[in-house]
Automatic annotation (TrEMBL):
Lineage: Bacteria, Pseudomonadati, Bacteroidota, Sphingobacteriia, Sphingobacteriales
Entry protein name: UmuC domain-containing protein
GO cellular component, one term: cytosol
Family under the similarity heading: Belongs to the DNA polymerase type-Y family.
One of the record's GO molecular function terms: DNA-directed DNA polymerase activity
GO biological process: DNA repair; error-prone translesion synthesis; SOS response
Domain of life: Bacteria
UniProt keyword annotations, A-Z: DNA damage, DNA repair, SOS mutagenesis, SOS response
Pfam family of the protein (one): IMS
InterPro entries: DNA/RNA_pol_sf (IPR043502), DNA_pol_Y-fam_little_finger (IPR017961), DNA_polymerase-Y (IPR050116), DUF4113 (IPR025188), Rev_trsase/Diguanyl_cyclase (IPR043128), UmuC (IPR001126)
Record bears the keyword DNA repair: yes
Residue span, UmuC domain: 2-181
Source species: Pedobacter kyungheensis
Length: 414
DNA sequence: TCTGGGGTCCTAGGACCC
DNA sequence: TCTGGGGTCCTAGGACCC
């Protein structure tokens, strides 16, 4: 049996944990750039705030109901996530951490599920302060379904018999299924399929034709036959991305180069932290697709490096050159990003026969960069092309403190 | 005026190779 | 007038996830 444990309203719960006076009050967390709502406490949901609502469209509701607003604080959420996962790993010897706020656990030989599972839930809340819900079923897809249904029935739901599963899928709305997004739902709607049970009754071939091999897997999972295995060891990453929206539009190539410099620097840092180098560097630019009156431009280009690299100077150089080629005058850019692919372990450096490797000089530079920035704070030593004013930088006006990661932000108890 | 970021997997088509 | 088969690599786009 699989268990899916998921933190309730995770970001909102994490923020409220250090501001207990907000218990029982509506809380929302905004995306980067304070753009849209990405987490809501139960009270905020009751106020009519929906997932993904742009902040500027719900400003009236926020005021009317005195909703507490937070910018996203990923350092805090990342740390709280680690604590929750650590607690879960005490109960599940085989744990598959699926995202920042959920994990699949394997319940192999456990017999008294109905009494065992609630104990897991209570211990996580007690030891981390983060409330979780747990759904248990024979497949991952059904465990996800059970987890969703559990939120309305005390936070635990165990589907351990044919009868319980059939009853559950009969009332479960098809658009809430794991793996069903907007496009698939449209198709189902046209066919009059409204529940998971109605979908499950379609022939296997139909799934394969309309939803590729993923649909076929879903079909088996809905009938209780596992098709998606537990992944205890995360596969090696295929790509690493750094992308951000700008605070305002960028219309000048020099300013774009500043932003791209910062993103490529961050990317190089991430690669080094993971002990990887990349062979391809992709750069992309976006305009604001919500503005029909603006000319749209979504250019992208992938550059192949001669030698796999994770050096800041290498990646910044390529990224700035590529972005300059992609840039078009008279266009208002909203966002840019860099993606590293063709990732290879740092230790397996493949040299190129026609170009000399520098004998590790760049690695030395990178090491010094990382050491100084670790000791004196991120950005202490950086590329000059990053610029000084950085007016394009993210907006986060409602940022909470680093309660669990910064000495100066630790809460004092009188 | 203001609408996130970081991923995965799958499919299809074109260029190129022998 | 007639022009293959099998493979890889790369790019792009679509769909989905949290």
């Amino acid at each position: 049996m699989f268990a899916l444990c998921d933190c309730n309203n995770f970001y909102a719960s994490a923020e409220r944990l250090f501001r207990p006076e907000l218990n029982g009050r509506p809380v929302v967390v905004l995306s980067n750039n304070d753009g849209c709502v990405i987490a809501r406490s139960e009270e905020a949901k009751a106020c009519g705030i929906k997932m993904g609502d742009p902040e500027f469209l719900v400003r009236d509701l926020i005021k009317k109901f005195a909703i507490q607003v937070f910018s996203s604080n990923y350092v805090l959420y990342g740390d709280m996530s680690e604590r929750v996962m650590h607690q879960l790993s005490r109960w599940f010897p085989r744990l598959d951490v699926y995202s920042i706020d959920e994990a699949f656990g394997w319940l192999g030989g456990v017999r008294e599920l109905e009494s065992y599972v609630p104990r897991i839930r209570e211990s996580v809340v007690r030891n981390t302060g983060i409330p979780v819900s747990i759904g248990v079923a024979p497949t991952k897809t059904l465990a996800k379904l059970a987890n969703k249904m559990s939120k309305k029935s005390g936070g635990v739901l165990v589907l351990d018999s044919e009868e319980k599963i059939t009853a559950a899928v009969r009332e479960f709305p098809v658009h809430e299924l794991w793996g069903v997004g907007r496009q698939h739902y449209k198709k189902f709607e046209a066919l009059g399929i409204r529940t998971a049970a109605e979908l499950r009754d379609m022939p296997e071939m139909w799934f394969k034709q309309h939803m590729t091999i993923m649909g076929q897997r879903m079909w088996n999972e809905l009938w209780g036959r596992p098709a998606i295995p537990l992944e205890q060891v995360r596969e090696v990453k295929k790509g690493i991305t750094v992308s951000r929206s700008f605070r305002n539009y960028i219309e000048q190539p020099e300013i774009l180069a500043e932003a791209v410099t910062l993103y490529a620097s961050r990317l190089a840092e991430k690669l080094r932290r993971e002990k990887l180098r990349c062979l391809y560097l992709q750069v992309f630019l976006y305009t604001n697709k919500n503005r029909e009156d603006h000319p749209q431009h979504f250019p992208s280009h992938t550059h192949k490096l001669l030698i796999a690299s994770n050096s800041t100077t290498d990646l910044v150089g390529v990224a700035v050159r590529v972005s300059a080629k992609l840039f078009r005058h008279g266009v208002k850019y909203r966002k840019a990003g860099v993606i590293a692919t063709g990732l290879v372990p740092e230790s397996e450096l493949q040299l190129n026969a026609f170009f000399d490797h520098d004998g590790g000089k760049k690695d030395t530079v990178s090491a010094v960069l990382d050491k100084l920035n670790l000791a004196f704070g991120r950005g202490t030593l950086r590329m000059a092309s990053e610029g000084y004013e950085k007016k394009w930088r993210l907006k986060h006006e409602y940022l909470s403190k680093g309660y669990t990661t910064r000495w100066s932000d630790i809460i004092k108890v009188k």
